Amino acid sequence: MRGYPVLIRTLSGPAHRALTHRTGPTPRRSFSTSPRARKDYFQDLENQFKAFRDKATAAMPGSDWSPIQLNPGLPPERADIVIVGGGVIGWSVAYWLKKKERVRDGVRVLLVEKDPSYSQASTVLSAGGIRQQFSLKENILLSLASADFMKNINEHLGVVNEDPVDLQFNHSGYLFLANENVAHIMEENYVTQRDLGAKVALLSPTQLKERFPWINTDDVALASYGLENEGWFDPWTLLNAFRRKALSMGVYQCFGEVTGFTCSTQTAETTDGEMLNVKRIKYINVRMPNSLEYQPVECAVVINAAGAGSGKIAEMVGIGKGPEHSVASVPLPVEPRKRYVYVVHCPDGPGLECPFLIDYSGVYFRREGLGGNYIAGKSPEEAEEPDVSDLEVDHEFFQEKVWPLLCHRVPSFERLKVSSAWAGFYDYNTFDQNAIVGVHPLVNNMFHATGFSGHGLQQSPAVGRAVAELVLDGDFKTIDLSAFDLRRLIYQEPVLENNIV
Amino acid sequence: MEPLLSLYSLQCQLRRQCSAVACITVARRTYTPSHPTPPSFFNRVLFTLNKHFYEVEHLINWSSWLKNKVIRRKNVFYGYTQKKFGVNVAASYYILGLGGSFRFADQPEWFRPDSRGKFSYDFLNTPNSTIEEIDLSRTLINHVGLENIMSQTRLRHLRLQACPEVDDWFLARLHLFGETMEELDLSQCSRITVGGLAALQHLRKLRRLNISSLPRLKNPGLIRILLEEMLPHCEIIGVDYEQGLLQAEPPTETFTEDSVHAGSLGASRRL
């Protein structure tokens, strides 16, 4: 008797109706729920949980903790900073954001990654080199800072009770070869690099031949050799080190795809009298893998570190979709470009001293391991860019374009055999092939860190720190990257790298 | 009540101040490439508490930060000494302070600290003598502290036996001694790998290189061959050609022609 009114209050519609229906014709009452009522209760369990969760939210309005998770893969409903893209740049930004927060759990950082297997991610398909031989001051400083980070990587990214980080860094340096036409560019760059602290040496053809007897120095006028802080390492280890450390510091990770944004718009007037619509992102929609279910995450800041897919993310938020000849019509000029990497085996090729050699014709190769294997490739011409719908490798490209140049430069490569090959995407900046770091003036809470065009991995620790400074401190504090701001895209002033390839 | 409250407020302050330090967690275990020993009971308890309590996390961070501080203090840049006494005196003072010994180019005797770490200041009398041989075995020198010795460009012999902080980045910085370095001893340095040995190609005058007992080298024999190709005039000591090679199976009791033939084929395929 006592149980019956309680049951009426807590059960929802169908169970209640079942009970009243049963007690209608027979005057006998039972103290326990009958099997039919229990069955309806369990069929309705999901609604019960939802009702319980709504009550819990109503009781604790400030927190988004709930004891029952309907779908554990969903991201939290609210986050302060959402990072789109789980490559090395995304995780580097996540790590530095957590490192720079002054209060424990000061910012809630959520990182959204589309593909948990990283099968098409540019980071893991990269050749993994780091060099300071650039012509732009910012690029040199970024690489130097990243090399300094990697020197003490266990101090930065070591986690208690986990294995120390071993990047397998090969300190063999980069060797650039120039012919007479471009030797003057190499000399100017050498002066810039030396001034900023990069340890580079210029070699004449005779010195080159003495140091590396296996090079054919016929048309080489000058060579530039990196002595310190240059070489190659394992990108997967760096990515996992950043990821492990960031997760240990409390970054939320979610596997899902960003499908849209909800923004609020305000109009602003420029000095010319033009009316602009300035957007502010309020919600970012994250869709679960293989499902239509999505979660709108309320956020304050979004960081676009999606690599080759950054152009699409920018399009989703409306960058580039505006009336012609206005600020809003300039899209984010980042698109994927496919690059091939071929693994070759040559029994009598260069030995342990083989650097990362880049020829003025664009062909490059480096040693891989100790068994006479090398990694070679070449950037294709603009007109011959391969199709980017998949990651299939074109072996004809190696036969026609890469092998002849390799043999010309290193005669012993005539006897090589291709063991395997893979392809990866560059997040290619079609405007000036340099990084895009900053805020678009029309979407003022979305920070971009993309467009690295092949240099993202080597600049990732320093770029992560720069973006974290931009978000948390408001301005660059250690390295000034204002040259990479998005305003240059709107003013159409490219910042070009004046290198020999 | 009063002391407890002050302790609690101190804790809160420390919690807030140390949030920056708390993020620097360091695994200061020596690298063990195979068979990691399971952590002791005390360590397991400590790590379980570390997951649940901020105070334990701070204590663990402080202990690793203190260990780092010792190494950092040993490798500080002797800029003041260099400015006041000259680069040679600064380098000598640094080496003796670390616990190493050296010999000037124009004198036959070695300057060493005694067993208690005390040394004589006679090197002040010869500020213009450059150092020719340095023995930094079992000291805490790392790639930062190498800056103090960079000025000694006429260095010929460098001994770094069992130095725990010498790693590949240290070897990459040795290119400055490329014209003069003749002997280098890297035995028992637990952090050196092949990537660092590849950087030794800048030492064109190297005559003797000791790479015995480097635990992180997977194929010492192969690396010896590659180093000998890279540095043709250099003698590599401490490694046999057979080290790192997979051994063939010993032949079985019953000797039939087929089994012997198959065994030798298998061995040649594996090698």
Briefly, what is this?
Chain A: Its main location: mitochondrion. Chain A: It is a single-pass membrane protein. Chain A contains 14 helices and 19 strands.
Please tell me about this protein's structure:
The complex is a heterodimer of chains A (501) and B (271). Chain A is 31% helix and 24% strand. Chain A is of the alpha/beta class and 501 residues long. Chain A folds into three domains: 72-171 and 230-333 and 430-500, FAD/NAD(P)-binding domain, CATH 3.50.50; 174-226, no CATH class; 341-424. In chain A, the strands form four sheets. An eight-stranded mixed beta sheet of chain A has the order 5-6-4-14-15-16-13-17, sandwiched between helices. In chain B, helix 3 packs across helix 4 and helix 5 crosses helix 6 (87-98). Chain B has a seven-stranded mixed beta sheet, covered by helices on one side. The model of chain B is unreliable at 1-35 and 259-271 (pLDDT under 50). Chain B contains ten helices and seven strands. With 271 residues, chain B is of the alpha/beta class.
Given this structure, which CATH class of the largest domain in chain A is correct?
Alpha Beta
Structural category of chain A: alpha/beta
Strands of the widest sheet of chain A, in order across it, are 5-6-4-14-15-16-13-17
Could you name the ranges of chain B where pLDDT drops below 50 across 5 or more consecutive residues?
Answer: 1-35, 259-271
Terminal CA distance of chain B: 75 Å
The total count of strands of chain B amounts to 7
CATH-defined fold name of the largest domain in chain A: FAD/NAD(P)-binding domain
What is the name of the CATH superfamily of one domain in chain B?
Ribonuclease Inhibitor
CATH superfamily of the largest domain in chain A: FAD/NAD(P)-binding domain
Give the number of domains of chain A: 3
Number of helices of chain B: 10
Query: Helix-strand pattern of chain B, N to C?
Result: HHHHHHEEEEHEHEHEH
Protein name (chain B): Distal membrane arm assembly component 2
Pfam families (chain A): DAO
Protein name (chain A): FAD-dependent oxidoreductase domain-containing protein 1
InterPro entries (chain A): FAD-dep_OxRdtase (IPR006076), FAD/NAD-bd_sf (IPR036188)
